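B., you asked whether I could sanity-check this one before it goes into the benchmark set. Here's the sequence:
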Amino acid sequence: MIHSINPYNFRGQNTQQPTQKKNTNASIFYVNDLHGNMANMSRIYNAKQSFDKQNHDGQDVFALGAGDISAGANIKLLKISNAFLNVMGVLGTAIGNHEFDAEPAQIAEINKGASYKIMGANLDIKGSDNPLNGKITKSFVHEINGNKYGIIGLIPPDLHERIRENESRKTIIPYSKEDSVKAVQAEADKLKADGINKIIVLSHCGLEFDKNLAKNTSGVDVILGAHTHELIKDIKNNENLFTSKTGEPVIITQAGKDGEQFGILNLEFDENGIIQKAQNNVQKSNQFKRNPILEKIFDGIIGKATEVGYVEKSAPAPEHRLVDPNPHAFFIMDACREEFDTDLALINAGNIRGHFDEGKLTERKVFEVVPLKNRMVKMKLTEEEVVNALKNGAKSLINPGFKPSIVMPSGLEYTMNRKGEVLNATFIDKQGGKHEIDVNNPDPNKTYTVATDDFFASGGDKLIPNKIDEVDEKFEFDKDKLTCDNIKRHGKPVVIEDDGRIQIVD
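And here's what the prediction gave me:
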């Protein structure tokens, strides 16, 4: 369905000239927040192949990304995401928080082989010897069929809250939200001064930021968003269609998370660069098969998949990954707790990015469920710190976008209500004994050994304070290794089911 925008702007003034010039038509293939999901990368590549074969007569056709295409610090996954963006022909992508899970040197090294631009107009890079100096583009101009498009990129203002403790956190300084808006306006003004009147922002800043950006800048036409994992379909007034400071239409869109969807945005601009018509198509990637050519490229980078076991029974994936009880996360946390022989295993729900299907289970399929490639740690937390983590996570039930996410445990049961309050919690010791915790007066002196990762330990998602310097042991592997080790050690078919360890009541 074509959504027609009135050729009169929202101040009621006719924007069409007496002599009508030929309008410009564009079709933009866009992706965001794939988080290194190789299966959906492969499907989206097939979708892009199909898109390219369509009749685009009279349209300017190109592809863009809005960040978090990769995830975690694993160099192989960085290479996979780079290969995906290259073969897709993406012109540029915002650099998201999960790209910054890697060290600056790793990001710079991978970018040497990139045919696309990594973008961020709202950051300062500390250190004259920082490998990212000169690697991140604020904006660029894409010319096709004689038409020019200005592309601006943004990193998340909350970057430091969304990545683990590493060199990226120390040397990449994001602008505030207010200064990020100013940075966009500055780039838009430069582009307009050069005669560019079709401007697209690649924003890894979240929907609420994007709405504010749309209404408080001039010259921006489209915001391809990310970060808050919104699934924005169609074009609806005051939902993802707004007016700029100068009364021109601005369209915002986002294609969900984990590569489960991709988008195609069709646009018609008049000679002044004002959108006259638009159509936003968001499609499911699972409608397409995996591409065998891309699969071979992945095999060459990460190695062929090794079978580790068999899933006999698997619970459905949670509907709302950040706040629903997740049996797949329980299974992974149980493996981590058992392999590390700790009292508890804790992780933020947002760390689990997929689910296990019934049937043959390979190392790669486990990796796809936990692709962020953080590093495991053993640490101690007091009972008070554990309860506070549960309470901080429970607030996600009432927070916009379900942020930051609830805590997925092993060795712990707890109940919360839909007001975001923790009602009770129980510690389950290694022998299965249950010990009630007073969530209103948790013991600040009682300690638990905890298996988690360096994102959680460094205060990621603000579930606990930054305690990365207090961990007992650090490891060079993530939850996928412990899960595979646990499956192979038990040597029996896997059953994944909800055992009720997290209860949500009205």
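One thing to flag: The chain has two domains: 3-8+31-287, 305-505. Otherwise nothing jumped out at me.
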